[in-house]
Design goal:
heterodimer; A: alpha/beta; Rossmann fold; 2 domains; six-stranded mixed beta sheet; B: mainly alpha; two-stranded antiparallel sheet; 13 helices; 2 strands; about 75% helix; globular
Amino acid sequence: MTLRMKRIVKSFHENAVLKEVDFTVEKGEIHALLGVNGAGKSTLVKILSGQMKADSGEIWIGERQVSLSSPHKAIAAGIGIVVQEVDTALFPELTVAENVTIHEWMKGSAFVNWKKRKERAKQLLQQVGLEIAVDRLVSDCSLSEKQQIVIAQALSRNVQFLILDEPTAPLSETETTTLFQVMRRLKESGVGIIFISHRLPEIRAICDQITVLREGKTVLQSAVSLQTDDQIVQAMLGKQLATLKEKEPRIRETPLLQANQFYVPKLAKNISFTLHEGEVLGIAGLVGAGKTEIARALVGQDPSSNPVTIKGKQWMIKHPRKAMEAGLCLIPEERRKEGILIDFPIDQNLSLPHIHKMTKIGWLDRQKERRLAKEVVEKLGIRASSPMQTARLLSGGNQQKVSIGKWLDTGASVFLFDEPTKGIDIGAKVDVFSIISSLAEENKGILYFSNELNELLTVSDRILVLYDGQFIAERRINETTLEELMSLATGGIQGGTKHQGSRTS
Amino acid sequence: MEQSIKVAELPKKQKKSKDILFHLLTKYGTVLAILVIVLLFSVLSGEFFTYKNWTDILRAISITTLVAIGVTLSLIVNGFDLSVGSTVSLATISSTIAMVWFRQETVVAICIPLVIGLLVGLINSFLIVKIRLPDMLATLGMMYMINGLHLTITKGYSVYNNMPLQDGTLAPGKILPSFLFIGQGELFSVPFPVIIMFFFVITVHLCLNYTKFGRLLYVTGGNEEAARLSGVPVKRYKAYAYALSGLFASIAGIVLASRIGTGQVSAGASLLMDSVAAALIGYSVFGANKPNVLGTFVGSVLIGILLNGLTMLNVPYYAQDIVKGAILVGALTLMYKSRKVT
């Protein structure tokens, strides 16, 4: 049986998002759906799972044309989805058993047969290979367990085609391996899987077929093995990506930010490191290693009880305001929640950290504010209809540029970037990298927290590997490889050489 | 070929004009409603569209608007102040007591309630910002306490000129004519409370939109965490908002005391709901989609006109709440609908 989407068209107001997309998935295959942000992946997936209605086009399952006008109908047709935010699909205060069987339960009799229900849950969980006490509350489960519970939920509804929307983004390496095992198992039982991911190595590891969307059109449909990485990237971008050349790390000696046994409250651990002027120091750590916790402690969001030394002066940073005074600023991971004011215009976002410079005895100088906004918008290439546009209407990459841009004229000397490339497309990533290297050229110090190890290798001069809240290794980028970093970050190689910070302590 | 293109374009155009109509409705719906209502009442009653009636309407809404300015400020920082009604009562009582029981001058009778209002606001700030109680619950508790306090002070009696005191003697003072001017006087045949109202509406509007102070209030309410990370002292700005809310309630209380000429107990109780309604209606005015003082003023005018007109048409006061509620629901519908679109 085959799932076919033919000539799917969808537009929002004037904006055509899908322009006659064709998409075909066979049962029993794992099919990668790829595209940069804005290519139309999410829209296509929403149409397939019945959350959105296509303007025109046909969807066929086998020899039957189906109408997927509601999520309910999509499920009836055998299409299931594991959304990116699995928590939205689960009831945290119910047990695993209740969550897994919730759909069958709603159809069943008014009385609950607990024993039967638990058995059924166990049976479904076995199909995904998850061994877990079914009496546990879902709120106590890990993210990867939750994903598998959602998959088991889909199985209980007799799913034929399963969409996995960027499932590996928040997972650790081992969790990803587990998920892949589940996917292979499902594939063997004849389920067709649509796998959305940005990570080419993963796609190569698990997928049979690949479809690439670009600007609302299908640009590549092929077996994965027939395509090289370059070809796939080229299909996604539509132009040859200028290969980032190997760079020599800048070796800097003037210490800018020194943390010596700096206490991180959320981790209950002490860390030590030194950041030099004009240096990009990468902090490599997988999800859960403690990157965000360190960043938050440094800028006083979760105040630490220890001081840090900036340009030879000791600072106790108890509040983000104090951090600004010390010349420290954070571009947070959660940009929509913490980085920018989503309902405010771009110019007001950009002026916020240095609004005191835009005032004459308390009165705002709107002209000055707009002039500054215009400069930043042009400098960073923020794509917006005007600097007065609401930040909500920008794409993820442009929102990120606003989140960075507001600090440019504040005179900050240390920039903390927490996962700055999360959820932004390749074009915006390149822009963010060039902003970072121009900051380094201005002798600023940059702490770059990321789990994208290959990005760390392109952007940083020196890398500290963070594992379970501690720096376990230090490498200059010309001394290391992606493979080594990965095995360090996953805890594969214990120890390595101790890094400089711990030596001094 | 050409024909088919034309056919395809037609429904798009229709959709567009429908969108524009909807857009206009969300933006100017409230103002439109006011115009329609004014027209309707003018036709139904000859008395309605006269200078005297208009000043009556404005005078009637001046106190509600003053309270509603405070409510708007607390809404701007994404909070809520339920204690404003009882603060009005306390301010009314305290200013009249100062004059009647203690023979104080007008200046003192104005300053005491202002200090009390500010104090109430600061206590609210303390509970919400420092102790981190949810805003509704903290101000609900304060509402009860202030209510009880002002009834305890007066033993439940209103305060009036030479009233009998607890010990059997008559109160020494009376409410001074200079104090009465605040609520009853006129300047250039414009009632003085109306002038006070316009003064504060314009001042607060300018502060909110053209000063750093106003910007940071909005920013604090827009996203507290992002604002904090950008170095905004969000706690301080929240405290300012509640302090000002208390202050405006006490200003309203002074005007109310002067208007009635006595210190009525629980005089401010009904003002809470009216001012909240005015501030919420204000969200939808000119498509602002956020709390704003001009909108609040328009909301208060809308409610005032309706009540005035309905009274003229002999609609009983207890039925007027139905209309108030309906207006509020209508305005909120416009707001949420337009939010969905954008």
